[in-house]
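Check my protein:
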Amino acid sequence: MSQEGANKSRRRFLTGAVSVVGGVGAAYTAVPFLAYWNPSATTRAAGAPVEVDTSTLQPGQKVNITWRGQPVWVIRRSEAAVEALESVSDQLRDPDSAVASQQPAYAQNPHRSIDPEFLVLVPICTHLGCIPSFMPQAGSLDADWQGGFFCPCHGSKFDMAGRVYAGVPAPTNLVVPPYRMADNGLIVVGEDQEAA
C-alpha cells in the first residue's frame, strides 16, 4: 500500500470518527435542551383527572381533594338531605341553576349532580373566594337550617346542593366541576360525564 493510499484511509477513518463523536455530542446537547421545553410533571399533573373512592364514604361525610390547584369536595348526602333540597327552593337566589357556567349540563338539576346521593363541588364562595364551612346537620346554624355550607367571611349561605340563598353577598351558586361516575364507587373529577 502506498503512502497516499494510507493517508486517504486514515483521513476517512478520522472523518468518520469525528462525525460519530460530533453526532453523539450534538445529541447529548439537544436532549436536555428539548426536554426543557416539555411541561414539568407538576404542570402535567395539575390538570390531570383525580379519582375519588367513595365506596367507604358514609352519608354526611366528605372527601377533600385538589384538582387544578383548587379544593374540591366530594360529599355523600343522606337521604334526608336530598329530600330537604326541594323544601328550601323558595329561599334560594338561583334554585334552577340557571347560570350555565356554574355546573356542567348534566348537573343542572335540583340536586346539582349526576347521582343525587353524591355532590361534587368547588367550595370557594362566589362572593370573595373564602372557603365555606360544611354544616350538614339540620338546625346547626339556625332553626330553619336544612344543612349546607356557611361562609364565615361575610355570611353567605348555600344549601346541600351548593345553591346560594337569596339576600346574602354571594351572587351565584358554588361551582360544580366536570366529573363522571366510574365503576366500583369511583368518581373521576376532571373528566366530563358526557365525554366518557
Residues 101 and 175 are 8 Å apart (CA to CA). The longest helix spans residues 3-36. The chain has two domains: 1-38, 49-195. Helices lie at 3-36, 41-46, 79-87.
